[in-house]
Amino acid sequence: MFIGEIIKQYRITNHISQRAFAARTSLSPSYINTLEKIYNPKTKKPYSITTDVAKEISNALFIPMEQLLAMLDDTQESNYFEFKVQDDSMSPVLIEEDIVIVKKQSNFENGDIVVFMINEKDIVIRKVKKTENSILFQPLNSDYEPLIFIQDEFKSLPVVLGIVKHLKRDF
Predict the structure, then answer these.
(1) Secondary-structure breakdown of the chain: helix, strand, coil percentages, each rounded to the nearest 5
(2) Strand 159-168's sheet: what is its strand order?
């Protein structure tokens, strides 16, 4: 399903207007109307949403954001993916088995928590710091060593998959 279809189906099932649905968020009724049209008339592609908008819509639907993202049609472009934390290297902020929502992008700023791939198979999550000559991937847990890549290694290692934007944790 497309995001607009999900919203419209919910509204119809629950007998609420676009205005009433929008009132549950900081989004405008006209934006809800636009999403429900499914396709951007200029690009002919389905509308996509940011994690902030997904969070607002999931709250308005009374479902977890991860469930909303899972409902999206595979053909709908998504700029986000879920990643399950595999170890305690980012503890105490992120712990093993946490689910994070990651925005797909290869650029990052110092201090971002990024998900990256090493050796085309190992996916790792770390806080990043870059200089002119190196990139430091720093774990928050002092039991783990930082990973440092010098400028000559930038093109082959690592491949940044995205930046962590949200955390889902069951208590």
Answers:
(1) 25, 25, 45
(2) 80-84, 99-104, 159-168, 113-118, 122-130, 134-138, 147-150
Q: Are 58 and 6 in contact (CB under 8 A)?
A: no
Q: Tokens 């783990």 identify what position?
A: 144
> Cβ contacts of residue 35 below 8 Å, gap of 6+?
3, 4, 7, 47, 49
Crossing angle, helix 3-14 and helix 51-61, to 10 degrees? 20
Ordered per-residue pLDDT tens for the chain, 171 residues: 889 999 999 999 999 999 999 999 999 999 999 999 988 888 888 887 876 788 889 899 998 776 787 787 655 556 777 788 889 999 999 998 888 888 888 788 999 999 887 766 678 899 999 888 888 999 999 999 998 888 777 666 667 777 887 787 766
Check if the beta carbon of residue 121 is closer than 8 Å to that of residue 157.
no
Which tokens in the block code for residue 166?
A: 């949200």
Backbone angles phi, psi at 102, to 5 degrees: -115, 130
